[in-house]
Design a protein that fits this description.
Blueprint (H helix, E strand, L loop, with lengths): L1 H13 L8 H9 L4 E4 L8 H9 L3 E5 L3 H13 L4 E4 L5 H12 L5 E4 L7 H7 L4 E6 L19 H7 L5 E5 L4 H10 L7 E3 L17 H10 L12 H13 L5
Parallel strand pairs: 1-6, 1-7, 2-4, 2-5, 3-4, 5-6
């Protein structure tokens, strides 16, 4: 029943006939009410692992993410697909902020994206009490671990939401976590059991080649003229990007 429902939602709102590896397993774990940690590579479809179950749960899904640009982009895409979503961040006016909260309180939104800094507001935490929160998502979950490379103290406030709604499932998502960080994420978020779904980070379409050459520009021209498609050249400074681009143009390569 649940599998048929999530496939129907996937097709109806996103137009896909099937899930990517691990997506369906993560979604089913969440719908079974289990705290879940998803380790998926960038571009692996993390957003669908919470957007699809958000459409199944009766109440609102709270998504904590530190990336305001991603927050805005996802909300715009969801609205375009006919899914009611709002975001709360420092760039909103007071009126926009109040309207978004009212929509959540009145059940007129399925997903609410918030920045972790928002959780430091006692007023906001009190406002959550009046909402029917059914699902908690922690994006970039490695930020909650002091063992992680991008630790953010504001992430520790997520535990307040868990205290308010102890019976709802939490989905933690990250593309970068060592085994120590994985254990720390589950500990900090109060997982009721260890439950990790990981997808291989191996990219079969990528290969790495290291070449030592005193004449890097000559080598660069040789590589670019003997390969198809576009290329990205990384250099140390803006000045060097201009110099390399001008050099490539002089040698008949658009850059």
């Amino acid at each position: 029943m649940k599998r048929a429902l999530i496939h129907d939602i996937l097709k109806r709102y996103w137009g896909y006939d099937s899930f990517r590896p691990r997506q369906e397993e993560i979604i089913m774990s969440v719908l079974d009410g289990r705290d879940t940690l998803g380790l998926l590579p960038t571009g692996g479809g993390k957003s669908l692992t919470f957007q699809v179950p958000a459409m199944v749960f009766e109440g609102i899904t709270v998504v904590v993410t530190p990336l305001i640009s991603l927050m805005k982009d996802q909300v715009d895409n969801l609205r375009a697909a006919g899914i009611r979503a709002v975001c709360l961040h420092s760039g909103l006016s007071r009126a926009e902020h109040r309207l978004a909260l009212d929509r959540c309180r009145l059940g007129k939104a399925k997903l609410m994206y918030v920045s972790p800094e928002k959780l430091q507001s006692a007023t906001f935490i009190d406002q959550l009490r009046s909402m029917d929160v059914s699902f908690l998502v922690v994006d970039e979950a490695h930020c909650i671990s002091q063992w992680g490379y991008d630790f953010r103290p504001s992430y520790l406030k997520i535990s307040l939401i868990r205290e308010l709604f102890p019976d709802i499932p939490v989905l933690a998502l990250t593309a970068s976590a060592t085994p120590v960080v994985v254990d720390d994420i589950m500990d900090k978020l109060g997982f009721k059991e260890r439950n990790v779904y990981a997808r291989s980070f191996s990219r079969d379409n990528l290969s790495y080649i290291v070449r030592n050459d005193f004449d890097k520009e000559r080598r660069l021209i040789s590589v670019l003229t003997n390969t198809s498609g576009s290329a990205i050249v990384y250099v140390r400074s803006r000045r060097r990007t201009r110099e390399i681009a001008d050099m490539l143009v002089r040698n008949g390569i658009s850059a």
